[in-house]
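Reading a protein record of the kind used here takes only a little practice. Each token is a code from a learned vocabulary of local backbone shapes. With that in mind, consider the following protein and its fold in token form:
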Amino acid sequence: MGIDLFTFAAQVVNFIVLLFLLKKFLFKRITAAMDEREQRIAASIETAKENERATAAEAEAARAIRREIEQKRIADAAALEAEIQALRMRLENEARALVERERDRWFEQLTNEEKSLTEEIAKRSGDIMLLLLRKALADLADETLEDRMISLFMKKMAAQKAGWFVPGAAYTVSSTFELSEVQKSRLKELSEALGGKTASVSFIQKPDTLCGIELRGGGGRLSWNLDEYIDKLKESISFPEKAKS
């Protein structure tokens, strides 16, 4: 079977004409449509990428917010725990301080009560002892003791500073016991020797004083009696700290 050259040439010419017509009238539209479609696809892809990037940014922002919230929650929990610990410690310290104050107050009260009881016992014991001592000294008082007291008192008179005895002044000698004439004479002579011949001396008895003698006059007072010693002893028993000082 042979090839018809004319027919072949006609088909080639028809094909070339077809291509020319397609290129002139249809290919540009198709190319434009394809380009437009390609641009739309590219725009859609870019929009999708932008959306994806925006979504990723929003997701990252959400994760950052969650992390911030979690960190704030942890910080708030830690702060609350620290506050609770501080409050518990403060309450424990206050309770401990209150217990210690109450304990110290109780000990102080107990010590004061013990001290008061001891002082009361010492005072009562001292009062009893002093009462017995006064009675014993009163029972032991005799003429020998009285003479000794007069001698001690006259030494005390002679030891007074100059000027204590005022010339011409009136003096009174009071004693627990009745002075003998000899004792009165000795005291009067000493008083006149110290205060001058113009000094007057009188004598009275005061039985309420325990074994004692006293001289008053010229604005002064001089005494010696066992009551003073017993009072000092009583003071040292009642107030030991004062006696030590």
Q: What stands out?
A: The first strand starts at residue 170 and ends at 175. The first helix runs from residue 5 to 140. Helices lie at 5-140, 143-158, 181-195, 226-238, 240-244. Residues 240-245 have pLDDT under 50 and may be disordered.
